[in-house]
Every structure is written in C-alpha cells, then in structure tokens.
Amino acid sequence: MKHLLFPVISVVFLAGIVFSEEPVLPTEFKFARITQSWEKYASILSFGKGQTLALVDDGCKLSMPEWNTRDEGRPKVLVTYDSVDGDNDPRHEGKGYHGSTIGIPSSVNYNGKRGVAFNNQIAVIRGLECCHCDVRDDKSLAPALQWVLENHEKYRITTVNLAPVDDKEHAGPFKSAIDEKLRALRKQNVWVSAPTGNHNYTKGISWPACQPDCFAIGAVKPEKDQVYLDRSAKVDLLVPASATSSSNAIACGAVMLLREGIEKSGYDWKSDGENLPEAMLAIMRKTGVRVHDSQSDMDFHRLDLLAALDHVFSKGKK
User: Which residues contact 300 (CB under 8 A, 6 or more apart)?
Assistant: First the structure.
C-alpha cells in the first residue's frame, strides 16, 4: 500500500494563532471533510490526544522516523506486543510488511504531515506473519485481541485497526477464534474495524471484516461517490481511499475524533446504540452521504466527519 504525501497546506487563523496542517492524504481527507473538521474544531478538539489506537497487523519497522516522534514528552508509539512470539518485539518477520505504514492515515504527525487523529498514540501489535492472511491466523490474532482486552484501560486504547484481509469473497460470517474477543471488546466500548478487501467483489468481503462485532469498512473512489473494491450487505461504512486498508485507517482516526466530540459536547449517545461503538457508527451513517452502487444494487453510507461532529455538538448538553 502506497501513501502519497502531497505538499498541500491550509492555514486557518484562530484568535491570533496560526493553525496549519498538511493532510497526508489531501484528496481523501477533503472529500470526507476531515480537513474542514480540523479547521472548525481546532479550538475545541485535541485530535486524538489521550487516546491510543491499536494497530493489529503483521508488525512494524519501528525505526521509521514517523514512529519516533514525541509530543510534549509523549511518544507516538506507546506500547508494543507480538502475539505470534509472545514477546514485546513487533518487528516484521517472514512476509510481513504492511504494519509499518497502516498507521499513517490515522495517526502520523511527522515533518508537518498529519493523519486524521494526529495527536493520538499507537499500540503496535504484531498479530500474524502477513496482512494477506488465512482464517487459520485466528490462532494468533485471538491472543492479540485478548491483549487489547486486558490492557485497553491501562493504555487508553479506544480503537482497534484490525488490518488483515484474507482476500476471499465471504457472503457471511463463520465461526473463528476471534469472535469472542471481538464481542468482549465491543461491550467494553472499544471500536474494532477491518478493511473489506480490494478485489472488486460485489457479493462478499474479506475475513475478519465479515465477522460479527467487527465493523466492515469499504471504499469509494478518492474524489467521487463511486463504490468500488470489495462490498456486500455486511459493509458498515464507506470512506474515500485508494485501498480499503486506507479507508479503514481513516475511519479509525475519524471515530477517535467523534468519540472526543461526544465527550466534549455531552451528547447522549445511548439513543443511538447499545454501546458507544454502535452509536458512533449510527451517527456516521445518518450524517453521512448515501451512495447507491449500481453493480450490487445496494445502498451504502459514506463518511462525512464534519457532519458527524456538527451533529453531536448541535445536540450536546454542554
């Protein structure tokens, strides 16, 4: 997966302060109204500060400068774990390569370039050998999710990017070792989502996105509401991106901002869902853009982050 870093800079003046940002994915962020959200809520939101995003993938090259930054003494990488080997060294092994970059759209804050929740911290978790996986990788992904379950309060993990895809066209879920962990994380109000896959399937999506209690994030093209890549009735939300791994990464950053917006506004989310992740999805769906896919003859909802934030702040109690 390639992330193109374009020299697009926007500057907003707020109370005599210059707020500048260079979105790491300018076209996608503009279309999902992420950059507009940064501008409007610059004096209200902290853009991920105090929250940690768990990146569950095939490891990470921690020597990358993007992951060696500090902000007010806070390291970008807060904690690491490897559920394959049972240690704290998440470096790539075997065929791994993807986890080094999957956190960029959601979390990077380096050299003037920013992801959606650029002030967050990340937990790097190596949960399998390669992101292009097999359902048998549930044996190592299950303990990775168990680690998150046991440590989410300690490390303030609010969001999980479950990045692997098995590249199959699953029309529905099936039993796997991760199901119980996903259910438990949902009950703890931890958001978990996964990419649907990138093969233009119209009747099914990849595992683990197809599983219950895992939100499935698909894609529209970066500049227009044209559904493409893998989709089915299981898809929960579309995000503009060149690959669904990027759309899911963007979604993970967006829900961190929405979570903070709900907290800061005092919005009563309980009318939207049985738990906070389900409520946040409901908010993003009802404030998002409805998109019809002629190939599958299905309707989906595309992320509009500014509309979601405006909704909770307009109806909040604070």
Answer: 218, 227, 231, 235, 237, 238, 290, 291, 292, 293
